[in-house]
Every structure is written in structure tokens, then in C-alpha cells.
Design goal:
Number of domains: 2
Distance between the termini: 41 Å
CATH architecture of the largest domain: Beta Barrel
Number of helices: 6
Strand content: over 45%
CATH superfamily of the largest domain: TonB-dependent receptor, beta-barrel domain
CATH topology of the largest domain: Maltoporin, Chain A
Number of strands: 52
CATH class of the largest domain: Mainly Beta
């Protein structure tokens, strides 16, 4: 680490001197109300600042013409010709791009809300967008832990927030639910390079505000896709890196024409061999939208999706293999006729998914507006697996006689299929005045899925036409309505209330493998109240408190594993936000009190999905801190840390043939310390240097809190450099980007699994691990027209 500090000391010294310049200053407001935290930067310059609690800003610039960009979710661009000190006051209420934000206005929050949240802007995404998945791009946000099956952030990756795995994180895209209705998971591998079509995203930790889709038990993530553009544009982006990784992207926009219309799109290809052996990814994706912009209307039609073929890498490796060859992948292994170890070439996950959205916002005057969305998603694909020495009867095949010997086992190749349709609508009406914001909304969504397995090859059994060996279907309907109100009691105090009623009906009928019946017919009705207050006790300080109750239904894997109960959570959040000049601090204390939390046991099913079990009473208690410190006009520091205690009150499990109490234990996959850090330096115009750090503390893969299930802490560092050549010939801009991941080549494991089995009344246990890549790199070039 000493070399890192020497490097940054040199960079600070190199940028400490700058010439005399003129000052631009003023106040940024929204319809007369001062806005704090607005980012102010000149286009093409490394200088930037933020408005303070009074909405004031100051910026030193050289003489000449500049284009100032004011960013606060939406953006406003103003041209100035600087020849003396200038006072420039800016009203953001008429920012041109603000219209797109309305699609998320019902599910997003601001600093005036009693909700804990963090934003990730388009600019921050672009700095490191070289092909890695959205969870990997989010890994430096507060209390976020990410992992990748292939080890390098491309392919199957996942995210945990406050120790809650992906199935407890509600995800919406333009306000439309993205979580798979049955599994409740989010599969970013189906949307390769989706980050290239993301304008910004907001992560609300805890229950958050009422939203659509799966219940939020650890966080809500809402994503806004690309805004429409006023000017025509196009870009070509290519990147290359370790493990034969490459990404190729083309984007375009017509700009607004005939005063109302704009069309834009993107097509991408990402390929990678993966850090883990044979953990390859072949991802193709697209994004197209048409926009109609009127005086009171904004209508957008979108379609996006992709196809993915990824070699399975969820088997993991044991502790011995981790020491011998941490890149080994046992998936697809079998022995040939001579007893040699071979690997099946097509042991893959092959899936396609297409999304369609129609979004309509209308403003009526007098503070009234409405949003309506219609959506449809079509998914289809399979897991293809080589299954060695399997019983024929397990797959619906009869034993046969060969050379006078009865053959009861054979090697097989199977495909486990999922074909599904997901469709519905979301809607809301809003009323917004100086002292009252009222939102009434809801959603109705329906899921229909067909699950079936086919045998496509048998090694020893007689050849046969394509044969199904299990078949079942499922249907899930989800309806919710909510009402939210924020009332300004005084200039200092505002009150927040939020009531949601949600009803779910889930049915499954048919059989699974080995002809085992799988039948579910379950209905849940949940009432989720939320309330809070925000008190502004000085110009620089806001204090907030909130309470939220949430419920969540079990998913398909939970029903397969037993008779699960729905979960209940009471979430208490106490936060303090401080903003003054070049320093901003967000802090909050949370207590999440669970009943029947479905916690990960550490075990996996046969397609790598985590198995969960109700834990009775449990809780998560933690403190989260994140800050922005502008140390110099060219140098900023963004640290964050989360310290938590995550406990099951009394965990019971079978051990040595008996049900035993293990007492108060750590909740699985819940590290007690998670920290991140970003140091950013802009030595000259157009050049950005970032040093990024992530620390994740010790955690357990089982609720037994035993040594065999322990994952060691890890500390990794990345280095990101980006240069924007704004005076390049032919092109509007040429952007060169480099990223060195894990620069000190730390050998670490971010995820794994744990299992137990009984033999003659004695319980034995073991663990599997998913190693992450050592030092690796990505470089890219973007040509903008």
C-alpha cells in the first residue's frame, strides 16, 4: 500500500499550483427553493464543485467561453463567455431533460425524504463501463457486496445489500418490475451491456418507499434507461482485456426532429473466456426506443433484451482444489471409455429474453400529473448438462438388457427448459404543490411459466427421440395499490406516510425430476405501512427517522425445499445528512427486525440456486457512513463504511441425527464490516484518475457459524483511468479508458456454499468456493460522432 500513497502524494503535489482565474458563483434553485448537492462542472474541464445547503456555488475558471453543466438527476447546460467575475443564478425547474425522470418519480426519493439511498450517475457508470455487469459496476456503493461465478464480473454475477441476497432486492427498470416473478432473482446475464443504456440508478437500502414487483427486504434498485437526446449523435465503443474479453457496442440517436420525435438504439456483443476454466460468456443484446415529446406529454416505446450462452460455473471447488488450482471448473466432467477425464463442450446455460415497455406521462396543470406503463417480457431457454452414470428410471427410461446383462444406468445429456411470459401494467397519479406531494398508484402483473426437462442424448441406453422426463407449469399474479404523502408542516419539518396493499396468488401443477409431484396453490395478502419525518434543524443539517413494515412471499425454490412461511420485516432508520461547502456526509443507523426471515442455508439445488429456510426471529443492526470530500478543485475523496451485527435469535438444525439448537448465530453471508473508497484526481482537462478500494469482512456461508463455513475477509483495489480527447479530428470526442482490477493480485473468495450429510448417525460437512480473478485489465476506446 505504501506505493499507492506515494503515487497519490506525487499527484497531489503535481496539481497543487494553478494560475489566477475568474470566479463564477451563484445560487441554484428549483422554482425558488435552493438546491443542495447540485454538481456544477464545465464541459471539457477537470474542475467541479457542489452547491451547499443554501444552494450556493463558486467555481474558478480561465477566461473564455465555457459550457457549464448543472447536474441534479436531470441536467441543465448554460453557455458563458467569461472575461470577469460572473454571478450566474440557475433555476433547474425548466431543465430540458427533466421529463424522463417522471417515469420514476413515484418510486424514487430525494434528500428531503426519510429514506436511506445512494445514486449512481451515467458519468460514474461510463468511467468503468468496459463490459462488466451492473452488480460489478455497483460494488463501491455503501454496504454492497458483489460476486461473479466466472470470477471477472462478466456472465453470472450477483449482488448483496446489507447481507440480503439478490432475491430480497426489488429491481425496477423505468418503474417496471425486473425481478423474475417465480425465483425473485435478477439475472443481469440476460441483459449484457445494459449499463450502456442506463442513464442513472438509485439504490434505496432497507425497505425503502413502496414500489412495484417483488417485496424489498434489503434494498430497492430503480433504473432509468437512456433519455431522449435533442441533438443527433452516434458512438462506437470497443474494449478488450484479460481472459480474451472483448466488448463491441454501437449507439445512435436521431435527436429531436419535427419538434416532437426521437429514435435511438444500441446493439452490443460481449465475449469472455472467464477467469475460471471454461466459464465462458457469449452475450448479445439490444436496446431501441422511440420518444414523443409534447408540451404536456412524454410517450416512450422501448424494446430491449438479449441472448446469453454461458458455460456453467456454479459447482465451485473444494478447499484442496482452491490451493492446487483455483481456476479449476468441475462442471461437465465425465470419463471416456479409456477412463480419461473429459469435459462436455456444451454444459451451458442458454437463454433469451425480450422486454417491451410503453410509457406515458401526462401533465394536467395545477400540480397534477399521471404515469402509465404497459409491459411484456418473453423468456425462453435451458440448462444443458452432462449427467454421468445416472439411473435410467430417474429419467423415465426403462432398464434394458445388453450382452446378457441388465443395464440400469447410463450417461445422459439433458436440457432443463423454462419458457415464460410476464406482462402487466403500472400506474400512478401525482399531485404536487409547495406544501404537499401526493402519489396514488399501483400495478397488476401476471406470470406464466412452463418448466420441463428433455433428454437429448444417452450414452449406453438405446437411442431414442427427444423425450420429456418432467413437466410442470406455473402461474403467479401480483396486484398492489399504494398511497404516499409528504406534507411540509413548516419550513423545517416534513412528514411522510406510505400505505401499500399487495395480494399475490401462486399456482404450480405437474411433476419434477424422478416424477415427484410439485403442486402449489397459495395466496397472500400483505399490508405494508411506512411513516417518517425529516427535520431540517439548520441550513446544513437534516435529520430523518422512518419506520417501514414489509412482507415477502416464498419463491419457487423455497416451496420445493419444504413448507415455507412468508417473511415479515420491521425496518427502523435514523439518519443524518450534512452538507457544507466541499464536504457532504450521509450517516444512518438501522435496525431490521425479522419474523420468519428466509435465510440462505449455504446449500444449492441442482441448477446452482441457493436454498433458504425460515429462521424464526432474527435481526440486522448497523451503522452506515458515506461522504464526499472535495479536497482540491481537482481532487475528491468518497469513502463509505458499514458496520453491522446480523443475528438469528435461536438457530435450529439437524446434527448427528438430532434437531439441535445452536443458539444465537450470525446470519449467513452477512459480513460485519463492508467498506469502499474512491479517490479521484483530474490533473489536466479531460484526464480522470481513480483509485478504488473495497473491503469485505469475514462472513459465514452457514447459520451454524462453524469454521468449515467461514469465508475470510478480503481487501481489493482497482485503478481506473479515462482520457477524453475533445479536439480530436473527425469525431466529436474520443474517450480512452483503462481499468486494472485487483492491482495487488489478491487471491480472494467472495462467495461459496456449504453442505452437510449424515452417515450412520454422524453428520459430516463440506464447503465449495468461487475464487475471484487476480490482477486483470480492460482497455477501451469510444468514438463519439
Amino acid at each position: 500500500m505504501k506505493h499507492v500513497f506515494l503515487i497519490f502524494s506525487f499527484l497531489l503535489a503535481a496539481g497543487s499550483g494553478y494560475s489566477q482565474e475568474f470566479q463564477v458563483s451563484g445560487t441554484v434553485t428549483d422554482g425558488g427553493t435552493p438546491l443542495a448537492g447540485v454538481l456544477v462542472r464545465p464541459d471539457g474541464s477537470s474542475r467541479f464543485t457542489q452547491t451547499n445547503a443554501q444552494g450556493n456555488y463558486e467555481l474558478q475558471l480561465k477566461e473564455g467561453v465555457h459550457h457549464l453543466i448543472f447536474s441534479f438527476g436531470n441536467q441543465k447546460r448554460i453557455r458563458i463567455d467569461l472575461s470577469e467575475d460572473l454571478v450566474l443564478n440557475v433555476d433547474m425547474s425548466d431543465a430540458q431533460e427533466v421529463l424522463d425522470e417522471v417515469f420514476l418519480s413515484a418510486v424514487r426519493v430525494t434528500a428531503a425524504s426519510p429514506i436511506t439511498y445512494s445514486n449512481l450517475t451515467n458519468e460514474e457508470i461510463e468511467d468503468r463501463n468496459l463490459g462488466q455487469d451492473i452488480p460489478t459496476l455497483m460494488q463501491y456503493m455503501p454496504n454492497v457486496v458483489t460476486t461473479s461465478d466466472a470470477g471477472a464480473g462478466i456472465g453470472y454475477s450477483s449482488i448483496r445489500v446489507r447481507g440480503t441476497e439478490a432475491r430480497g432486492i426489488n429491481v425496477t427498470i423505468n418503474g417496471v418490475p425486473y425481478n423474475d416473478a417465480e425465483s425473485q432473482g435478477t439475472f443481469w446475464v440476460n441483459l449484457g451491456d445494459f449499463a450502456s443504456s442506463v442513464e442513472d440508478l438509485q439504490l434505496q437500502r432497507g425497505v425503502g418507499t413502496s414500489t412495484n414487483g417483488a417485496g424489498a427486504f434489503g434494498a430497492s434498485l430503480n433504473i432509468l434507461t437512456d433519455r431522449y437526446n435533442y441533438a443527433p449523435s452516434a458512438e462506437i465503443a470497443n474494449s478488450f482485456g484479460s481472459y480474451n474479453t472483448r466488448k463491441h457496442t454501437v449507439k445512435f440517436s436521431t435527436g429531436i426532429f419535427d419538434d416532437h420525435w426521437e429514435f435511438s438504439g444500441r446493439a452490443s456483443v460481449i465475449k469472455s473466456d472467464g477467469y475460471i476454466d471454461r466459464a465462458s460468456s457469449d452475450l448479445k443484446s439490444y436496446f431501441f426506443q422511440g420518444s414523443y415529446v409534447g408540451e404536456t406529454s412524454l410517450i416512450k416505446a422501448l424494446t430491449f433484451g438479449g441472448s446469453e450462452v454461458t458455460y456453467q460455473a456454479w459447482d465451485g471447488i473444494d478447499a484442496d482444489q482452491l490451493q492446487e488450482n483455483r481456476r479449476f471448473n468441475p462442471a461437465g466432467a465425465y470419463e471416456d471409455n479409456d477412463g480419461n477425464l473429459q469435459f462436455y463442450d456444451n454444459h451451458v446455460d442458454d437463454y433469451k429474453q425480450d422486454h417491451f415497455q410503453l410509457l406515458w406521462n401526462e401533465r394536467y396543470g395545477g400540480g397534477w400529473s399521471s404515469n402509465l406503463a404497459l409491459h411484456y417480457t418473453y423468456g425462453r431457454g435451458f440448462y444443458e448438462s452432462y449427467r454421468a452414470n445416472r439411473r435410467l428410471t430417474q429419467y423415465g427410461l426403462e432398464p434394458f438388457v445388453a450382452n446378457g446383462e441388465e443395464i440400469t444406468r447410463s450417461d445422459l445429456v439433458t436440457q432443463k427448459w423454462l419458457v415464460n411470459d410476464f406482462y402487466g401494467t403500472t400506474f400512478n397519479v401525482q399531485y404536487d404543490t409547495d406544501n404537499l406531494e401526493l402519489i396514488l398508484g399501483g400495478a397488476w402483473n401476471n406470470y406464466e411459466g412452463d418448466h420441463f426437462g428433455e433428454i437429448i442424448y444417452t450414452r449406453f441406453a438405446p437411442s431414442l427421440p427427444l423425450q420429456r422426463y418432467y413437466d410442470n407449469s406455473s402461474q403467479k399474479s401480483d396486484f398492489n395499490v399504494y398511497g404516499k404523502a409528504t406534507v411540509a408542516v413548516s419550513e423545517a419539518l416534513s412528514l411522510y406516510g406510505d400505505l401499500q396493499l399487495r395480494r399475490i396468488h401462486y399456482e404450480v401443477d405437474g411433476v419434477e425430476e424422478e416424477n415427484i409431484p410439485f403442486i402449489v396453490d397459495d395466496t397472500h395478502t400483505f399490508f405494508n405501512p411506512k411513516a417518517g419525518l425529516t427535520y431540517k434543524f439548520s441550513e446544513n443539517n437534516r435529520l430523518y427517522f422512518s419506520f417501514a413494515r414489509a412482507h415477502r412471499e416464498p419463491n419457487r425454490t423455497d416451496y420445493e425445499a419444504g413448507n415455507p412461511e412468508p417473511e415479515e420485516l420491521n425496518d427502523y432508520e435514523l439518519g443524518w445528512r450534512f452538507l457544507s461547502g466541499n464536504f457532504q456526509l450521509n450517516s444512518n443507523l438501522y435496525y431490521m427486525d425479522y419474523r420468519n426471515q428466509l435465510v440462505l442455508t449455504g446449500e444449492l439445488n441442482d441448477v446452482g440456486a441457493p436454498i433458504r429456510r425460515n429462521s424464526g426471529n432474527s435481526y440486522r443492526l448497523g451503522l452506515e457512513l458515506d461522504a464526499v470530500v472535495v479536497l482540491h478543485p481537482k481532487f475528491s475523496w468518497r469513502p463509505n463504511v458499514a458496520i453491522s451485527r446480523n443475528k438469528n435469535d435461536d438457530w435450529f438444525a439437524s446434527w448427528d441425527g438430532e434437531l439441535q439448537s445452536f443458539g444465537k448465530t450470525d446470519i449467513s453471508y452477512s459480513p460485519g464490516v463492508v467498506a469502499g473508497n474512491i479517490l479521484e484526481y483530474r490533473p489536466v482537462d479531460g484526464l480522470e484518475l481513480k483509485f478504488l478500494t473495497k473491503y469485505v469482512g469475514e462472513q459465514y456461508m452457514s447459520n451454524l457459524q462453524n469454521e468449515e463455513a467461514r469465508l475470510d475477509s478480503y481487501f481489493v483495489n482497482d485503478f481506473n483511468v479515462q482520457y477524453t480527447w475533445r479536439s480530436a479530428p473527425v469525431f466529436k470526442e474520443v474517450v480512452l479508458t483503462g481499468l486494472i482490477n485487483n492491482i495487488f493480485s489478491e487471491e480472494y473468495v467472495s462467495n461459496g456454499y456449504y453442505y452437510t450429510y449424515d452417515y450412520e448417525g454422524v453428520t459430516y460437512d463440506g464447503a465449495g468456493y468461487y475464487p475471484q480473478a487476480t490482477r486483470n485489465f480492460l482497455v477501451g476506446m469510444t468514438l463519439k460522432f
